[in-house]
């Protein structure tokens, strides 16, 4: 039977309840309990009490909104960014770095059912060497918006500063906006990517309409004035360099070149420590054969090759395999080979796997490596280092290694993205 509701129907006032937060989740939300149910409350920190109203009541949990905070945590800090709370990039700038790291450490320990041995961290500000900024022309104000997406929305936050960006990239923000606003094609949406390589910054402009000769000239003048390598992207899969300067970064004394679209770790300081720690944990000997799975363009593979007898890097993206081969040649490393393989298939049957491996490193994407774990067990390395950007899939994949006779010897939390909900980690497994 159809039901009809009157527009004059009285809306009851939501009940105000008082709660005390006892934990912080990775997304910067306070966690409290009320009537046996978990409440997630944005903006509240552990040991803070507040009057809140429930905004979304689910079966297993509820979301609540602060009406009045009753006290303030000693670990509450003033957010450094004026866009915090609106921009979706950061979730935890209101919490001290120590609290952020403790919360992530505890979350990782719960998932892995083991204490975390160490935290690998770098500078909490000015660490991000890559950013992708949306562009949107505002007809009413005749201004170009440039920034990141709002939290839980597709609208763009028109940013003027971003303190998690490296100072060099943050200083470019107003200059890039001014340049792009001056283009005749400014009204056509697209996005801009900024990357800081060790040999200088670069910019990729994704433009949805053809650029006039005058616009290209303006862009070239801007790139020269800022010593900025410029790339144009008329389509998502096309990249047109207007420079002959190939970007690169250093790791373990090696120079690794990359394309602007290649994956590189956003936090250079933590990446340097992560690579050094992985080499230390694996205990690479001059006689070792080492396998690097999901190797990309050689971020771990090439430093491993400096210490081992031989290294095999395996990657599912052909362009990254080619870049890894190029980097090996440029660094005169002749004991490393790269292969393009589907890592869901049984790689133990490949010719390069016939002699086995002493040590294995893997660094998969967020989906983890469920199809690979049995192959690793079959190869029977003495040690395995698993680098993870998703603790849930790490915990799942670890179960296979634990059942296969390995045990966890070291567990580290990588604070790769301070002030955000991202939780990265690294585990050393050793065969019993």
Task: Describe it.
By secondary structure, the protein is of the alpha/beta class. 22% of the residues lie in helices and 31% in strands. The protein contains eight helices and 23 strands. The strands form four sheets. An eight-stranded mixed beta sheet has the order 7-22-23-21-20-17-18-19, sandwiched between helices. Helix 7 packs parallel to helix 8. The radius of gyration is 25 Å and the shape is flat. The N terminus is likely disordered.
From the spread of the alpha carbons, the general shape counts as flat
Counting helices, strands and paired strands, the structural category is alpha/beta
Helix content: 10-25%
Low-pLDDT stretches are 1-12
Rg over alpha carbons: 25 Å
Average residue pLDDT:
93
End-to-end C-alpha gap: 66 Å
Count the E strands.
23
- Give the biggest sheet: 8 strands, mixed
The DSSP helix count reads 8
Q: Give the spatial strand order of the biggest sheet.
A: 7-22-23-21-20-17-18-19
Strand content: 25-35%
């Amino acid at each position: 039977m159809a039901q009809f509701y009157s527009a004059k129907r009285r809306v009851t006032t939501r009940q105000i309840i008082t709660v005390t937060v006892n934990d912080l989740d990775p997304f910067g939300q306070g966690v409290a309990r009320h009537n046996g149910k978990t409440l997630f409350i944005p903006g509240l920190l552990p040991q803070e009490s507040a009057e809140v109203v429930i905004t979304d009541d689910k079966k297993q949990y509820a979301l609540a909104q602060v009406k009045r905070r009753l006290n303030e945590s000693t670990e509450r800090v003033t957010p450094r960014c004026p866009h915090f709370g609106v921009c979706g990039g950061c979730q935890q700038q209101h919490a001290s770095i120590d609290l952020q790291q403790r919360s992530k450490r505890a979350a990782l320990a719960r998932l892995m059912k083991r204490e975390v041995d160490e935290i690998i961290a770098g500078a909490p500000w000015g660490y991000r060497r890559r950013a992708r900024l949306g562009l949107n022309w505002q007809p009413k104000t005749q201004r170009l918006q440039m920034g990141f997406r709002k939290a839980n929305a597709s609208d763009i936050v028109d940013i003027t500063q971003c303190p998690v960006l490296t100072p060099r990239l943050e200083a470019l923000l107003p200059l890039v906006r001014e340049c792009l606003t001056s283009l005749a094609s400014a009204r056509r949406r697209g996005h801009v990517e900024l990357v800081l390589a060790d040999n200088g910054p670069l910019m990729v402009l994704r433009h949805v309409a053809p650029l006039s000769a005058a616009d290209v000239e303006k862009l070239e003048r801007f790139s020269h004035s800022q010593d900025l390598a410029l790339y144009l992207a008329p389509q998502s899969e096309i990249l047109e360099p207007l420079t002959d300067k190939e970007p690169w970064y250093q790791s373990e004394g090696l120079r690794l070149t990359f394309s602007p679209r290649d994956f590189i770790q956003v936090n250079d300081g933590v990446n340097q420590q992560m690579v050094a720690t992985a080499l230390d944990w694996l205990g690479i000997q001059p006689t070792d054969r080492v396998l690097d799975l999901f190797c990309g363009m050689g971020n771990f593979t090439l430093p491993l090759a400096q210490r081992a007898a031989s290294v095999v890097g395996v990657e599912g993206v052909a362009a990254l395999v080619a870049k890894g081969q190029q980097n090996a040649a440029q660094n005169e490393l002749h004991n490393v080979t790269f292969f393009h393989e589907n890592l869901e298939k049984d790689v133990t049957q490949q010719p390069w796997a016939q002699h086995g491996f002493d040590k294995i490193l893997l660094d998969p994407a967020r989906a983890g490596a469920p199809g690979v774990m049995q192959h690793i067990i079959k190869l029977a390395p003495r040690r395995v280092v698993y680098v993870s950007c998703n603790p849930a899939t790490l915990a799942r994949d670890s179960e296979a290694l634990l059942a296969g006779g390995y045990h966890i010897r070291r567990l580290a939390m990588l604070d790769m993205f301070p002030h955000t909900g991202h939780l990265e980690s690294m585990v050393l497994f050793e065969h019993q």
